[in-house]
Amino acid sequence: MVLAQLGGSISRALQQMSNATIIDEKVLNECLNEITRALLQADVQFKLVRDMSTNIKKIVNLEDLAAGHNKRRIIQQAVYNELCKILDPGKPAYTLKKGKPSVVMFVGLQGAGKTTTCTKYAYHHQKRGWKPALVCADTFRAGAFDQLKQNATKAKIPFYGSYTESDPVKIAVDGVETFKKENCDLIIVDTSGRHKQEAALFEEMRQVSEATKPDLVIFVMDSSIGQAAFDQAQAFRQSVAVGAVIVTKMDGHAKGGGALSAVAATKSPVIFIGTGEHMDEFEVFDVKPFVSRLLGMGDLSGLVNKIQDVVPMDQQPELLQKLSEGHFTLRIMYEQFQNMLKMGPLGQVFSMLPGFSAEMMPQGREKESQAKFKRYMTMMDSMTDEELDSTNPKILTESRIMRIARGSGRLVHEVMEMLEEYKRLAKIFSKMKGLKIPKKGDMSSL
Ligand code: GDP
């Protein structure tokens, strides 16, 4: 789970403060010290952290707060606002239009995860109805074309490259032309990386950019460098018109928070984060929902996005429609357990739900949850269609509950527990009622 440690520490600090009988200056300071420590551990720049703490103290003037005001909510909101400020580049990301041919050029240092990310980016859009294609213009690293070819084949995405041509500009131009003729609307050009920032790399980048005229240049960087990301992002920005950034390896590095805030300081919007080596370990990055999730406040827009990732495309419009109408039935719960079991990783989905902080669904507990879901599904197999399709749990009378327990070979209290889980989820999903949902055939958020 992304930044689970940081999120856990911050929500724990807020929770501890909430547990205090009276919130006075001492309690507030303890809470802010805890948050400060967590952010510094994540390599967020000292000045940013210090300013954040000062600003919160200024906003939350405990003595001035009129009696009856909810101090906890005010403090949580102030932490939320300040974290958003740290991560906000002050500039929206450039939006591409589906159906109109766009060229996206990827740049970055060798090993940053550029080639892997190109495929993840293509796959993400393919799942949302785009027609992507991959061009390998990395002639520097031996094996780069084979790697791209392998990834692209796995994801069933068309690709272009050459084993013999050594001019990256020629390959890029030929690839883009080929895919424009094939009506691809997202032509992704993977360029060469280098071990370090050097003149030759930047010159090649400029040439490929001039020849292919990309609509968007995406800079890919590894989160493990923490706040050093500032200098790296600046150097790339000065050589080529970087329109967006993707920060990779957010799964394994404690310094992720530092990297994200440092990129924001260069005024470049981060659009995705990489959270693992696999194709679907890739998340849309949006400051407000991200911070909301970090503080254990849930992320409904992230949930919609996750649904687009884990639910088969033909079932998405119907499910989103039902949820936006507030119809969360046991059958929907059953089908979603099925999808989650199939598509894993549960933690990612659960961390999007309001009320599920990183601590409640820690990494490594997925197996336990999976066993529970399977148990619940066995019980639901013993229910009637009417029961599964109802939004009123009262139709499950005591005798029906006993019958379901007998039919599924489980205990009555286990059936009751499953129904409690249903009610809890139904309450959470009821917040999606009225949520704006993407139109059919336009499931892209970017
Ligand atoms: P490139 O040289 O920039 O093209 O980098 P690659 O795409 O070859 O990636 C370098 C290594 O990083 C590979 O082993 C990838 O599997 C790995 N990698 C890429 N993105 C992520 C990520 O988000 N998380 C983790 N854990 N590994 C990643």
From TrEMBL:
<keyword id="KW-0687">Ribonucleoprotein</keyword>
<dbReference type="InterPro" id="IPR022941">
    <property type="entry name" value="SRP54"/>
</dbReference>
<comment type="similarity">
    <text>Belongs to the GTP-binding SRP family. SRP54 subfamily.</text>
</comment>
<dbReference type="InterPro" id="IPR000897">
    <property type="entry name" value="SRP54_GTPase_dom"/>
</dbReference>
<dbReference type="InterPro" id="IPR027417">
    <property type="entry name" value="P-loop_NTPase"/>
</dbReference>
<dbReference type="InterPro" id="IPR006325">
    <property type="entry name" value="SRP54_euk"/>
</dbReference>
<dbReference type="InterPro" id="IPR013822">
    <property type="entry name" value="Signal_recog_particl_SRP54_hlx"/>
</dbReference>
<dbReference type="Pfam" id="PF02881">
    <property type="entry name" value="SRP54_N"/>
</dbReference>
<comment type="subunit">
    <text>Component of a signal recognition particle (SRP) complex that consists of a 7SL RNA molecule of 300 nucleotides and six protein subunits: SRP72, SRP68, SRP54, SRP19, SRP14 and SRP9.</text>
</comment>
<comment type="function">
    <text>Component of the signal recognition particle (SRP) complex, a ribonucleoprotein complex that mediates the cotranslational targeting of secretory and membrane proteins to the endoplasmic reticulum (ER). As part of the SRP complex, associates with the SRP receptor (SR) component SRPRA to target secretory proteins to the endoplasmic reticulum membrane. Binds to the signal sequence of presecretory proteins when they emerge from the ribosomes. Displays basal GTPase activity, and stimulates reciprocal GTPase activation of the SR subunit SRPRA.</text>
</comment>
<dbReference type="InterPro" id="IPR036891">
    <property type="entry name" value="Signal_recog_part_SRP54_M_sf"/>
</dbReference>
<keyword id="KW-0342">GTP-binding</keyword>
<keyword id="KW-0963">Cytoplasm</keyword>
<dbReference type="Pfam" id="PF00448">
    <property type="entry name" value="SRP54"/>
</dbReference>
<dbReference type="InterPro" id="IPR036225">
    <property type="entry name" value="SRP/SRP_N"/>
</dbReference>
<dbReference type="Pfam" id="PF02978">
    <property type="entry name" value="SRP_SPB"/>
</dbReference>
<keyword id="KW-0733">Signal recognition particle</keyword>
<dbReference type="InterPro" id="IPR004125">
    <property type="entry name" value="Signal_recog_particle_SRP54_M"/>
</dbReference>
<keyword id="KW-0694">RNA-binding</keyword>
<keyword id="KW-0378">Hydrolase</keyword>
<dbReference type="InterPro" id="IPR003593">
    <property type="entry name" value="AAA+_ATPase"/>
</dbReference>
<keyword id="KW-0547">Nucleotide-binding</keyword>
<protein>
    <recommendedName>
        <fullName>Signal recognition particle 54 kDa protein</fullName>
    </recommendedName>
</protein>
<keyword id="KW-0256">Endoplasmic reticulum</keyword>
<feature type="domain" description="SRP54-type proteins GTP-binding">
    <location>
        <begin position="269"/>
        <end position="282"/>
    </location>
</feature>
<dbReference type="InterPro" id="IPR042101">
    <property type="entry name" value="SRP54_N_sf"/>
</dbReference>
